[in-house]
Amino acid sequence: MANYEGILEALNNGEFDGVQHTYSPVDGYQKHTSHQTVMQVNGSEIEVVTKTTGKSFDGKENNWYTEESVEYLNDNEAVDFILQRPYYFRQVRPDLF
Predict the structure, then answer these.
(1) C-alpha gyration radius of the chain
(2) pLDDT tens, N- to C-terminus, the chain (97 residues)
């Protein structure tokens, strides 16, 4: 069982070692749409950038598009994110997991 308070304290102290993680899932239903998530830890904040690339057809030609959203996670949101995706992080403090 994870130590929730310990993870939060380590994150706030800048002890939590995150790695940049990129993930592009394969979507079988929309073969021309891809989602990429890039995560990185900046001090006690986790920055999550999600980029969606795809194409749509307007009846005449294909239109390519790219959308990007950025989310900043702090405190409890950051700890919840870490607990849901521990494989995104180097476990410098294995005693917390």
Answers:
(1) 17
(2) 678 888 888 888 877 666 555 555 555 455 667 777 778 888 788 888 888 888 888 888 888 889 999 999 998 898 898 888 877 776 666 777 7
Distance, in Å, from the CA atom of 7 to the CA atom of 95, rounded to the nearest integer, reads 10
Examine residue 97 and state whether it is found in any structural domain, yes or no: no
Decide if 24 is inside a domain. Answer: yes
pTM of the model: 0.68
Cα angle 30, 24, 15; round to 5: 150
User: Cβ contacts of residue 65 below 8 Å, gap of 6+?
Assistant: 53, 54, 55, 56
Q: Could you list the residue range(s) of the whole structural domain that residue 37 is in?
A: 4-92
Are 44 and 78 contacting, i.e. CB atoms less than 8 angstroms apart?
yes
